[in-house]
Amino acid sequence: MRAIRFLLRHRVTRWLRDPRWGTGTVAGQVVLVGLLLLLLAPLGLGSYMLGDVLRELYPEANALRLINGGMLYLVPALMASPTAWSPVAAGAWLATALLLTVVLASHGAILLHLLLGQRPRGFAGVIALVVGLFSVDATLGPDLFRAASRVILGRPLVGLACTAFLATGLHVGLLRAMQTRLEVDRRTTGRRDGPSWWEQALRRWAERTLPAGRLVALELRQIFRTRRMRGIALMGIICAVLFYGVGISELVLKGAIGVNGILYIVSFGIGWPSFTVGSVIYGISAGHVDGLFTRPHPFSEVVTAKLALLWTGLLPGTLLLPALAPWIRPDYAVFLLGCALYWWGVGTPAILYAGPRFRTPVDTAASSASMAMTESSRGLILLPIPFGLMVGTITAYATGGWLLVAAVLGGAGLAGLGVVAWTLRPFARQLNQHRHAMLEGFRENEPV
Question: In the 3-class helix/strand/coil scheme, how is the chain assigned residue by residue?
Fold first, then answer.
C-alpha cells in the first residue's frame, strides 16, 4: 500500500507541475467543458421554450413561419420546429438543418483557416463582406436573410437541393485548397516575395515613433511573418469590429444604445485586439525568446516594447469613442471613458505582468485561427480582465450608478497609468525572475 500511495502522490505531483496544465489534463478539460456548458445552457433552454414563447408573444401568427424566418440567426432554434410535415418533408428539413449547422459550418471554418494561411488579406475581406452584408440587411431592412431562411427551411425539398448543391461546391473547393496547401513543389503556386508596403510602413512608423521602437518593429515583423500570430491578431480585430458594430447598430435601429451595446463595446470593442495578442505576446517561440533575451537590450526596454505594442492595439477602439459620445447619453459616454482608462491602465499592464508566467510556446505553423486561450491556461488566467468590466457594467445597470462605477474603473486606470509612467521596474523584475523558467518550458514544449 505504501508503494501505491507513493506512486499516486508522484503522479499527482507531476500532473500539477505539468506546464500544459490548462488543457493537457483532465482538470483543464473539465474546466473548459464547464465553461462551454455555461455558455450553451441559455441557448438550449431558449430553444426548448421557443415554441411556447412565440405562441405567447404572437398568438395569431404561424410559429413555424416565425422560426423558419429567423433560422439563420438562431441556429439552436433548428430543433425547436414542430413535427408539421410529411415524413419525406420532415426528413428533408432535418437534412437541411444538419447540412447548414454541421457540414457548411465546418467546411467554411476550414476554408477560412486555409485562406488565412495563404492570403490573409482575402481572409479579412471575406469576414468584412459577411459582416457588411448582415449589417446592411439589419440596418436598411431588405430582409434578405430572413427571406432566404424562409425559402430554404419553409420548403424542405427545395431547401435540401440548394443546401446540398452549396455543400458539394464547398467540399470541392476545400479539397482543391487542401491540395494546394499540401503541394510539395511550391514553384507552381504563388509565393509571397516579402512584406507588403503597408507592413513596411507600419514597421517604420513603430520604429521611429514608439518607445523602444526597434523592438516593437521586431514584434510586428514576427506577427506578420507567422500564420498563427496573423490569425490571432486578425481575429482580435474582427471581434472588436463586430462587437463595436453591434453597439452602433442598436444606435441606428433603436435611436439609442442599450446596456447590451455598452457591454459589448467595453468588454470586446475597445481592448480585444490587445487581449488576444497579449495572451501570447511572450509565447511566440523559443527561438524568438532566445534572440530577444540574448540581444543587448535591458529588460526595461523589452517590457516597454511589449507595452507599446499592446497600447497600439487599444488605439482604434479608444479613438472611436469621441465620435460615438455625442450620440449617446452623457452618463454612458463617461462610463465608456472610464472603461477605456481601465483597459489602458489596468488591463494592459495586467496582461504584461502575467505574460512571463506562461510556459507553452505558440505553434507558429498551426493553421487554426482560433485564439491561444483555447489551447492553454492563458485565457483562463487573463479572463478576469474583461470579466471585471462585465461586472462593472451589470452593477451600473442594476444600481443606476453609471458615473460612480465609471469613476471607480477610470480611477483605477489612471492609477495604473501613473504607476507605469513612474517606473517599469516591477515588470522588468518579473520578466527577469521568470526568464529561465520560460526558456526551459519553451524548449520542453516546442512544437515539432
Answer: CHHHHHHHHHHHHHHHCCCCCCCCCHHHHHHHHHHHHHHHHHHHHHHHHHHHHHHHHCCCCCHHHHHHHCCCCCHHHHHHCCCCCCHHHHHHHHHHHHHHHHHHHHHHHHHHHHHHHHCHHHHHHHHHHHHHHHHHHHHHCCCHHHHHHHHHHHCHHHHHHHHHHHHHHHHHHHHHHHHHHCCCCHHHCCCCCCCCHHHHHHHHHHHHHCCCHHHHHHHHHHHHHCHHHHHHHHHHHHHHHHHHHHHHHHHHHHCCCCHHHHHHHHHHHCCHHHHHHHCCCCCCCHHHHHHHHHCCCCHHHHHHHHHHHHHHHHHHHHHHHHHHHHHCCHHHHHHHHHHHHHHHHHHHHHHHHHHHHCCCCCCCCCCCCCCHHHCCCHHHHHCHHHHHHHHHHHHHHHHCCHHHHHHHHHHHHHHHHHHHHHCCHHHHHHHHHHHHHHHHHHHHCCCC
Give the pLDDT band of residue 412 (cuts 50, 70, 90): very high
Highest-scoring range by mean pLDDT, 11-15, 327-331, 355-359: 327-331
pLDDT reported for residue 70? 64
- Rounded mean pLDDT of the chain? 75
User: pLDDT tens digits for 107-159?
Assistant: 877 777 777 666 767 777 777 787 777 777 766 666 777 777 778 877 888 88
42-59 pLDDT, tens per residue? Answer: 666 666 666 677 777 777
**C-alpha cell at position 166:** 452549396
